Every structure is written in C-alpha cells, then in structure tokens.
C-alpha cells in the first residue's frame, strides 16, 4: 500500500502536513479538495481518460464520520458527475436511511475508480492502481471514523486481498487504523433481493462499530 508521501508524489502535489522550509517547497501546492478535484478532472493516468465523459470525484460531507466506497461510476454517474445517482444510488440512499444517515449529512460517497469503464465492465488491475492515490488522498482529507466498502472490488482494493466477498463481510476489518465493514454493492442487491437481509446485518454491524468509537 502506498504511504502518505507516496500518494502525493503520485499526484504531483505536496502534502499539507509536510513542513516547507525552502522557497521552492513553499511554492509547492498543498493538497486540498480543489487540487484533488482538478487532478481527477484532468487525469490521464489510465486508458479510461479516453472514453469517459468526466471524472467523478465524490459527493457529500467532506468532514464526515462515514466514508462509503463503491466500485466505479456508471453511465448516469459519468453523465452527471456524481456517484450513485441511478437505481443503485436510490437503493444506497435507502440503505443509509435505514441506519439514520442521509446523503450529504455526515457521509461522503466515492468510488475506487473515478472514471467509468466502457460498458460498465469490471475494473482492471492497472486502472485500480492508477486511481488508488486519489482514493487514499480522499481518505486522508475526510478522516472518516468508519469506511463502508460496497462490493467485491472496493473491498478487495482497500484490503489488498483476492478473498471472496462472502468471506470478508460479517466482521470488522482495519484500513490504516480505520474500521472497515464490507457489504454488497447496491447494484448487486437489485439483482439479488434475498441478500438484502445480509446487507442489513452488515449495516447494523457498521452502526454498532461507529457507536463504540
């Protein structure tokens, strides 16, 4: 996993926590949301830059306790520039509402990939690697108390594992000392309604975990 310094080196911007004593360092841009948003908007780190409409950074409370991480933008997200705005987004809103959370209020929502894969195909390893610095920078800026990983790709990317989703859910993991709970992606739940009960269990686990912090 990239270190904090590695993340900002990858993005070509200086981290806010680094003291800048020399004149040249003083002129280096400090990473904030404006720089990160601009970097995503103009990113050419992978082949998806050639096919996307726009980069999709994230949406919500930038000082939230909850960070929700999905897989990648879909067609609606690519068009509107906001994650989880289609049918899966409506289900995600309902899932969060079931544990007392409203979109934009104490929750920040993003994806591992910031660009839509053509035809909504699965992300490829080099695409995940290219986008990971952006996600790590978001985590560093938000400083969430808990991460909710939606679906196999988000879980595997954050936990650096190829384990199946079923073996990852139902317990609390740790990402850079932040509790992380894995559950199903809303798009999957739309096709597999019986697993909504298991997703509810995961949400309850996440809520209990954050209440104990």
From TrEMBL:
SUPFAM superfamilies: Uracil-DNA glycosylase-like. One of its GO terms (molecular function) is metal ion binding. The keyword 4Fe-4S applies. Its EC number is 3.2.2.27. It catalyses: Hydrolyzes single-stranded DNA or mismatched double-stranded DNA and polynucleotides, releasing free uracil. The keyword NAD does not apply. GO terms for biological process: DNA repair. InterPro entries: UDG_Type-4/5, Ura-DNA_glyco_family4, Uracil-DNA_glycosylase-like, Uracil-DNA_glycosylase-like_sf. Residues 57-204 form the Uracil-DNA glycosylase-like domain. Keywords: 4Fe-4S, DNA damage, DNA repair, Hydrolase, Iron, Iron-sulfur, Metal-binding. Belongs to the uracil-DNA glycosylase (UDG) superfamily. Type 4 (UDGa) family. This is Type-4 uracil-DNA glycosylase. It comes from Thiobacillus denitrificans (strain ATCC 25259 / T1).
């Amino acid at each position: 996993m990239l270190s904090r310094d590695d993340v900002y080196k990858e993005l070509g911007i200086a981290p806010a926590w680094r003291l800048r004593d020399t004149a040249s360092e003083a002129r280096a841009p400090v990473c904030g949301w404006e720089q990160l948003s601009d970097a995503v908007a103009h990113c050419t780190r992978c082949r998806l830059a050639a096919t996307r409409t726009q980069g999709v950074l994230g949406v919500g409370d930038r000082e939230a306790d909850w960070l929700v991480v999905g897989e990648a933008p879909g067609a609606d997200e690519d068009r509107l520039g906001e994650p989880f705005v289609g049918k899966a987004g409506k289900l995600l809103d309902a899932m969060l509402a079931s544990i007392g959370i409203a979109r934009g209020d104490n929750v920040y929502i993003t994806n591992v990939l910031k660009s839509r894969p053509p035809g909504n195909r699965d992300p490829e390893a080099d695409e995940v690697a290219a986008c990971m610095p952006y996600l790590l920078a978001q985590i560093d800026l938000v400083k969430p108390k808990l991460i909710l990983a939606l679906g196999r790709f988000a879980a595997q990317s954050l936990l650096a594992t190829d384990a199946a989703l079923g073996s990852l859910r139902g317990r609390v993991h740790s990402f850079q000392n932040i509790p992380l709970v894995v559950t199903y992606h809303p798009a999957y739940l739309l096709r597999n309604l019986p697993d909504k009960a298991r997703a509810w269990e995961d949400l309850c686990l996440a809520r209990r975990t954050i209440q104990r912090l």
